[in-house]
Every structure is written in C-alpha cells, then in structure tokens.
Amino acid sequence: MGPSSSKRCIVSRRRDETAEGSLKRLRTDVIDLYYQHRVDPSVPIEDVAGTVKDLIRQGKVKHFGMSEAGVGTIRRAHAVQQVTAVQSVLTVVETP
Fold first, then answer.
1. 68 and 89 in contact (C-beta within 8 Å)?
2. Burial 53-91, CB ≥16 within 10 A → b, else e
3. Do 68 and 51 meet the contact criterion of CB atoms below 8 Å apart?
4. Is the pTM of this model over 0.85?
5. CA-to-CA distance for 20 and 3, rounded, in angstroms?
6. Which of 21, 63, 70, 81 has its CA 20 to 30 A from that of 54?
C-alpha cells in the first residue's frame, strides 16, 4: 500500500465515520445530499469523491455536493463521482 492509497484509506474511514454520525443524529437511513463544504488542499479531491462514491454504493448517501470549490476541482471530482449540487459564495457587497 503506497502513500496515496494509505491516505485514501484514512480519508475513507473518516468520511464513513462522519456519515455514520450524521445518520445517527438525523435518525435516518440515508443522507439525500452529502456536501463537501470546504476543500482540503492536502487531500486529493479524487479521494474525497471516491469515498463519497463508496457511501453512495453502500446506500448511505444519495447525492454528492460541493461548496466553495473551483471549476477544475469540481471537474476532477465529477470525473470520479457525479457532483449533483454546487454552492458558491457570492456577496452583493463590494469590499475594498
């Protein structure tokens, strides 16, 4: 197991624990839309998308969404697992 696959296992385990915790707190069997709210630059987005893909296969999650991600990151994630929803920060107030 190389460094990349080792990191993927850690990401996968953590994401699975997070999903399980959400399912328990929500008292449900499935999460309709599982969001990545912030992109962690130290974790390849392909690993995150692959882990969400696993959660979808397990029936724990229906759809994958991303928030505050760049176009390239969304495309790379979508190549692994369909990204169903995208949210971006938009401010109507101009900052100096």
1. yes
2. bbbbeeebbebbbbeebeeebbebbbebbebeeeeeeee
3. no
4. no
5. 26
6. 70
Amino acid making up residue 56:
I
Query: Domain ranges in the chain?
Result: 3-87
Name the residue among 62, 59, 54 with its Cα closest to residue 80: 54
Q: For 9-43, how does the pLDDT look when each residue is reduced to its tens digit (9 = 90+)? A: 555 667 677 888 888 888 989 999 999 988 989 88
In degrees and rounded to multiples of 5, residue 30 shows phi and psi of -145, 145
- Three-class DSSP labels, 18-50: HHHHHHHHHCCCCEEEEEECCCCCCCCHHHHHH
- How many angstroms separate the Cα of 14 from the Cα of each of 30, 86, 92? 17, 22, 36
